[in-house]
Write a structure and sequence with these properties.
alpha/beta; 5-stranded mixed beta sheet; two-stranded antiparallel ribbon
Length: about 350
Amino acid sequence: MFVLLFLFSFTTAAQQRPAFTIDPNARAFDASTITPYKQNHTKIYAYIDANKEQHLANLQRWVRQRSISAENDGVREMAALLRDDLKKIGFQEAEIAETSGHPGVFGYLDAGASKTLVVYMMYDVQPVEPVGWKVDAFDGAMVDHELGRVLMARGAVNQKGPQRAFLNAVESILAVEKKLPVNLIVLAEGEEELGSPHMPELVAKYETRLRDAVGVFFPMPSQDRTGVATVNLGVKGIVYFELEARGGDRGGPVGAEVHGSTKALIDSPTWRLVQALATLTSPDGNTIMVPGYYDSIRPPNAEEQSLYAAMMKDFERREELMKKGLDVRRWIDGWSGEQALLQFLHNTTLNIDG
């Protein structure tokens, strides 16, 4: 395996991270220029208020069901729970969609509408760290928090809570209005936390149905710590790969560790792997040294600059909230304001997972 790793040893000219600026003459996007939504949903809001206990119970059912994809813990049970909830809400079609890995879930609600919206969901969660929890991760407990009374559980924020809250809203609309203004396709996977290795199988299985949709919606947390709601226009995708170093004829043990006393004689696959990883970035880890890695990064276009200029009006406040939420005191190179925003939204990354 050493030969494979040596392929990653780059001898390149100095690389530089892309730098971006917002044209000082860029006109900030003004949401008030958009025709406001004028429909009144007072009855639906009243229904939601009257059924908060049941809606909370729905969230608790979801977060109490284990679904750790990396450990195959409760995954199929969670898929069945999601399928059954779709049926109960009124989806005419709801089924387990098998893949070569963990199953997906497909649902279709025919509202007799002219337009169809795909709702992407993920029902799996990350493994649970053994320390740092105020309550058991799958208790679905309500606890006192600096933000107020909150539901604390694995998946409460990412992403079971927001997704079941969305279904609560769908259920409420149907209870009051008896139908939705759009048809819904739910396509859920149980491997997002693994990098979605079998999502292409789900897309291929329902490709014809998915092509009928006008867009895709991903229910996710959209409020910051002060309650201000935001709209995400996209998310960052990933390319995921693993590097392994193994001993063999080229050196290093085949099936044993390298003891400190014998390192004087034995190649260490671990050190070879460390050296290979170190060639991928500058010594501080912040500039990617892989040739061509930055080539496709372009400056923000006029529309994006308009959006960024509007975001800057509130970014100073949000930036401090981001630091607090991420538990960091400074960004790379001491960035702040415009440069921090542009790097976060517009640049690419190379990260060692975890």
